[in-house]
Amino acid sequence: MQKAAVLLLICLMFLQEGFAQQDYTALREVMVREQLEARDISDSSVLAVMRRIPRHEFVPEDYKDLAYNDRALPIGEGQTISQPYIVAYMTQVLGVQEGEKVLEIGTGSGYQAAILSELGGEVYTIEIVEPLGMAAKRRLKALGYRNVTLRIGDGYNGWPEVAPFDAIMVTAGAETLPQPLMEQLADGGRMVIPIGPHGGVRQLTLITRKNGKFKSEKLMAVRFVPFVRQSGKP
Ligand code: SAH
Fold it and tell me: Signal sequence: where (predicted)?
């Protein structure tokens, strides 16, 4: 009798888990339709990966149910995972193609790295806050991402051993353009980075490099957690 009760309980737990997963899939679909397609996200590969990747696995337990809302969320250590629309927009602008070498500065939860990886990029990502970086590493491994290499450290200097990169995404707000990142951009490469004063509104900026020449284009006003240096100062 007791055995039967335990079995029933286990079955119920599995069922509940199944329902929760279905709920998340439904929430994700609504997110893609209402927050991305209804705005200006039209790149089919970006939409497909945002439909697939379980964003709720990248946020703390208490925020799972809010994972698909139209907002940024705390991920611990005073940092945030960006709003889905901003993630999609930056990804669309970067236009990563299968097999391209991609550098991300500011791993945070690892969500953006997962997206770049599912687009077929060979992803290198740097996080300055060690506990966040370690947690992201475990999470990405558990979710089966193999083409993401993560390093803990100050991303200001990029990753010279692996450079040049076809695409660079900076997901923390910088006051100025880090020179080493410019130098590590391949010819034909793209970099997307929020630039502006700390505490204020920044401009999401697209830098492109062609025939050795750099072009800079302001895309939209955004708010981002600050890009900090190893000294701990912004
Ligand atoms: N892309 C992340 C969100 C990033 S929030 C995601 O998908 O979840 C910005 C991150 O940049 C924070 O985790 C912050 O610790 C990190 N960061 C800030 N300055 C940095 C630097 N100089 N080098 C590397 N990471 C940095």
Answer: 1-20
Token duo for residue 98 = 């299968």
CATH number of the domain bearing residue 91: 3.40.50.150
Ligand 1 contact via 106 beta carbon (within 6 Å): yes
Domain range for 98 is 71-222
> What integer pLDDT is reported at residue 232 of this predicted model?
52
| Alpha carbon nearest to ligand 1 atom 16, residue | 106
**How many A from CA of 226 to the centre of ligand 1?**
8
- In this prediction, residue 22 carries a pLDDT of 72
Residue ranges in the chain modelled with pLDDT below 50:
none
- Tell me whether the omega of the peptide bond preceding residue 164 falls within 30 degrees of 0, making it cis: yes
DSSP, collapsed to helix, strand or coil, labels residue 25 as helix
DSSP-derived letter for residue 115 is H
Within-domain flag for 94: yes
Matching residue, tokens 């979710």: 143
Q: Using a 6 Å cutoff on CB, does residue 193 contact ligand 1?
A: no
